Amino acid sequence: MKLYLTLITIITAFFFTDTKVQAQSRQDSIKRSQKVLTFEEHKQRQHHYYRRLLNIDSAKAVEVSQVQDTYKAGMKVLEGQNLSLEERRARIKALMEEKNKKFRALLTPEQQEKIIPPGEREPGKKAKENKN
């Protein structure tokens, strides 16, 4: 009987040990479907996207990208601050207006429609529609 119990214990230990070893030696079943981009590669793709979307040259695409980056950086700064709701809204509105002012100086109206969200295109238009 002791031999039988010892044999069962050894066989059971072998199977559990074998399973763990196989699980650790297998290749990852999850493979990366996309390459992780470096900062420079991301910037190049972003410039290419703006060139295609807005049908502009590389220099203007860089400027558009810089405007967007400035806006995003401003939004990140706001995340870390402890502001009241009204103050936060006012600062976000100021950031959006500054971004859109730069886009208006840089792009044609057709290009502006492609990059400026509809709610931000004409700052006074929404207020006028709400009054009527």
Question: Could you list some keywords that capture this structure?
Answer:
132 residues, 6 helices
If you had to describe this structure to a student in words, what would you say it looks like?
With 132 residues, the protein is mainly alpha-helical. The protein has a domain at 39-112. It is 74% helix and 0% strand. The radius of gyration is 29 Å and the shape is elongated.
Write the layout of secondary structure elements.
Elements: H1 2-25, H2 39-54, H3 58-79, H4 85-106, H5 109-115, H6 125-131
Return the string of H and E elements. HHHHHH
First-residue to last-residue Cα separation = 94 Å
Count of distinct strands: 0
| Shape annotation | elongated
Total helical elements: 6
Short description, anyone?
It is built from six helices and no strands. It is mainly α and 132 residues long. It has a domain at 39-112.
